[in-house]
Task: structure prediction
Amino acid sequence: MVTIAVTAEGPDEPRFAVSPETVKKFTALGAKVRVQSGAGLRSRFSDDALTAAGAEIAGSAGDALAGADILLKVRRPAADELRQLKQGAIAAAILDPYDRAGIEPLAGTGVNLFSMEFMPRISRAQSMDVLSSQANLAGYKAVVDAASLFGQALPMMMTAAGTVPAAKIFIMGVGVAGLQAIATARRLGGVVTATDVRPATKEQVQSLGAKFVAVEDDEFKQAQTAAGYAKPMSAEYQAKQAELVANHLKTQDIVITTALIPGRPAPRLITRAMVDNMKPGAVIIDLAAERGGNCEATVPGQTVEVGGVTIVGAVNLAASVPVNASSLYAKNLYAFLELFFDKKDKTFAINWDDEIVKGTLVARDGQIVHPSLAPQPA
Ligand code: NAD
Result:
């Protein structure tokens, strides 16, 4: 029988790698899920609920790990945890794989490591895409947090005592997080505008009832890669974009920035001078904070005030809705591992040739193997 171990996360991570729903599904596939006692509590997954779904509760992390075939985590496990697994075991988590110095000791344990954030963006892997499942929640929570920091109401209200104007909400970057931010901002009654460099987003923005704001020149028409991501834009385009954005920002109450380009620092879309021209009381939530921020004044992990404008360097916002974030992340992990269970024989075997495996496998048999992590030539 395949044993799946799930142990507690660190103090800053309330999310958890299995839910009662996925424990039930793994159990139905013939696996045994061994969960460290109390480890799911910050996602409201009690030992009782996990046991009812079929999990075995282990008194300690060591008891959960001992001889297990698979370790599931949200964040990178410790090398010590990996050493307690069975020889040839696998571990799947959000590994932060570009930090090679942190990954090497883990690879050295011989455990085969899968980095969920490397999931290929192909339709077969959509249900396994942790970046999407978490970004969607982050986009939602950014708007809710902004609404609570903004000292005014969002929807227009016509009352006997007078009219409350609708808040103007601007979403910069219309990927997964941005689309959910637009939808949430609309539901809360804001007047919503959005910008992106990918032309495909214009229709998406309009279909959500928001207005699209962008420099729509020839370069803009070519700004999407075959994989659906943004390309870095020319200095000329950026200057035109900056002028348009600078003018637009002067009138906005809430700005949510989500703009990213894979493998690069976040594009700088809001300068300090633009912040200085914004209305006092305005709120910026910078979801790109972890990658350097879309706003020049952003401090990752902190909320700062600049000339009356509140700027939130949002980090791991999905974790602030841990119940949903864990449920979706757990489903992503389940969808990934389900591929390798033989439903008839109840056995588990990785198909090393599968493109989903090749895309996510970071270390195999003690070596770092992912092509994106090859050492750079000196
Ligand atoms: P992302 O997090 O990489 O970037 C967020 C947004 O920022 C993107 O829309 C990007 O175009 C935009 N951006 C970059 N530079 C900008 C700039 N200078 N100004 C304004 N905006 C800028 O994107 P994402 O959320 O991961 O989604 C990227 C694409 O991948 C989308 O088309 C999405 O629908 C698609 N996607 C596909 C799958 C799948 O098929 N499995 C899964 C998720 C997302």
Q: What stands out?
A: The longest helix spans residues 130-149. The mean pLDDT is 96.
